[in-house]
Amino acid sequence: MSNLGVTDTKTITIIGVIVLVIVAVAAYYAGQQSAVPQTVTETVTQTVTSTVTVTTTVGVTPTTTPTSPTITVKPAKIIWASTQLVPPEEQAFVKNTLLAEFKKETNVDVEFVGISYEDLSVRMESEQTSGKVTISVIGELHGGLDYFASKGWLEDLSKFGTLPGRTFPKVLEEYSRLYGIKAYIPWMTATYVMVVNKEAFKYLPEGLTEEDVIKGTSKWTYDAFLAWAKKLYEETGGPKVGFPAGPKGLFVRFLHGYLYPAFTGAQVKNFDSDDAVKMWEYLKELWKYVHPSSTTWDAMADPLLKGEVWIAWDHTARIKDAITTKPDQFVVVPVPAGPKGRGFILVIAGLAIPKNAPHQDAAWALIEYLTRPETQVKVLENVGFFPTVQEASAKITAGPLKILAEGVGNQLSTPDALVALIPSLGAKGGDFKNVYITAFQRIVLNNEDIKSVISELAPVLKGLFEETGAPLPPPDSKS
Questions:
Q1: 89, 212, 249, 463: which could form a disulfide with 219 (CB 3.0–4.6 Å)?
Q2: Mode of pairing for the β-strands spanning 311-315 and 76-82
Q3: pLDDT digits (tens, 9 = 90+) for 363-411
Q4: Which domain holds residue 439?
């Protein structure tokens, strides 16, 4: 693969589009907390073996251009707990490539702990309450970091200054300032998309073109998707649509962040509405043409590569292998649109340091390393998460990654885009997901009455937000 040249400027632009779409929901979070920069005075004097160059703010506000001394890092062993990059193959990349190179450079040994959202929240609370903090760095989604910051469990990273050689878009910087502190450093972005085997385009329903699907035009709707799934089923002799609805799959995100916004305009507040009834009726009909093994699949790359399905929905990181293995066979496309718009989730992950964490100089060195443009490109190439630093765009190569980037860009730039963010519920995040999965199992798999099920579950769902005091996530907050 060659470096991006003039012909690949579209790929660079697409990475920028990912950031621009974040602006659409930034105003919501801006109103949730005060984010006034604090004056920081920090003197750093450390002597040791390995050296990592960072910038430290000395006696000025974080918005002022700081001085640039060199911070030296003592050899240490630290724990990095992360809710991201948890699947075995992703953990292998983190441990064998990223952290091996980091240790060689700094002599800092990092123990990577892949952990669930709920378990991280429980562990953070336990360590902060007991005062026995063992985690030095956490990798988590914006919603979880927002929750931790609201509890006072995160260090103010402005005391470390800025990171040279990289530019974080202003909107991501604004997102990462929570409750008056610099709560985290933007790390990765991602979304969930559809992947289509080009063979499926031979079976398009009347009135829908390949261009409609690839560009996400007004004709690429959930009704058109249903018609396509039905035609594929009837003319190929079996189901050709699949979802990661297995025990560790991410199908729940499709339910609350895609179907619900597309059909009801919200993730939570219209859970038991008449529009929600129509949504569940739609999903029941669609499921007739969905591969039955979907309830066992945790990721869709293998079913796509094996030809078990020709159309699949999943996280960008979990379909990347299909694209890189057979780039000429697959195309990444936007999700369909519903009556209320083209609902989809935007994922923002960040890196933070827990309050009173051990070895904070080593923790900051790890954050510096993980946000370097060249490191961010390695992450995209290996696991499919997109960079947060602008300098990484020029380092992205063509080929399979361009296919992935174009699909993501097309989805983000559709005029009817309806962006959803995963809510900040801390340890209750699992209960949130269980409501939607329970509804799916009872309505679609067990054929229970739709209105009865959602009327029963709605108070449970809304009660989670009342109990935690968490704000409703976009698009609920904007409608």
A1: 212
A2: unpaired
A3: 999 999 999 999 999 998 898 888 888 888 667 766 787 788 788 878 8
A4: 191-346+416-478
